[in-house]
Design a protein that fits this description.
By secondary structure, the protein is mainly alpha-helical. The chain contains seven helices and two strands, in the order H-H-H-H-E-E-H-H-H. The two termini are 71 Å apart.
């Protein structure tokens, strides 16, 4: 899909009118793609934008240009002519290509081994650093969650104690004997200390 759309975009770019903006070229490329792809719209614009300037995709421009140089017409004498009017002396533009797999392996086996080892070690160090930072952040988050839970538990216990204290305060103690009234007063004093004095 991306290759197909890239071809459409290149064709529209080459046929670019003098007053057309890049957005208009993009619209034409979308329309061309849709007609060539059985009316299916191109939905991978994000990925196409990410790769279109890479050497691999830039080389497709060259391939497109060389394909347009095929013999397609007959001139008056019956000989084939080029589809564009460039002369045979035109020098093709050379662009840098990405390093191939074999070349990369040869470098690893040869002189560049130390450099590759160094970059691998650097990568490992960076990954370990990121891992430790993530672990540290996770531990901090868990600590904060535990502290929040502890505060919530304390608040709940305090709320329950306050409800019990209010119930005991409203209790009619006129029928209590001296020992029971003393225990009742001691419990109230203890609860008052826990509820009100600890706040100060």
């Amino acid at each position: 899909m991306i290759v197909h759309f890239n071809g459409c975009w290149i064709r529209m770019k080459q046929a670019h009118g003098s007053g057309e903006s890049d957005d208009q070229v993009m619209e034409k490329a979308h329309a061309l793609y849709k007609t060539e792809a059985d009316q299916k719209p191109f939905t991978l614009v994000y990925w196409w934008k990410a790769v279109k300037d890479q050497p691999k995709w830039a080389n497709r421009d060259d391939k497109q240009e060389t394909n347009t140089n095929k013999r397609v017409k007959l001139n008056g004498s019956g000989a084939y002519t080029s589809s564009n009017q460039e002369s045979d002396d035109a020098v093709p533009i050379e662009r840098s290509r990405p390093e191939g797999q074999k070349k990369a392996k040869a470098k690893l086996k040869g002189k560049n081994l130390c450099t590759s080892d160094f970059s691998l070690e650097t990568l490992k160090t960076e990954k370990m650093k990121m891992y430790h930072e993530a672990t540290h952040k996770k531990a901090e988050a868990m600590q904060r969650a535990a502290e929040s839970m502890e505060i919530a538990t304390k608040e709940k216990a305090k709320s329950e104690m306050l409800a019990k204290y209010l119930d005991l305060m409203a209790l009619d103690t006129s029928g209590f004997d001296d020992a029971r009234r003393q225990r009742h007063d001691n419990v109230l004093k203890y609860m008052e200390m826990k509820l009100f004095q600890e706040e100060n």
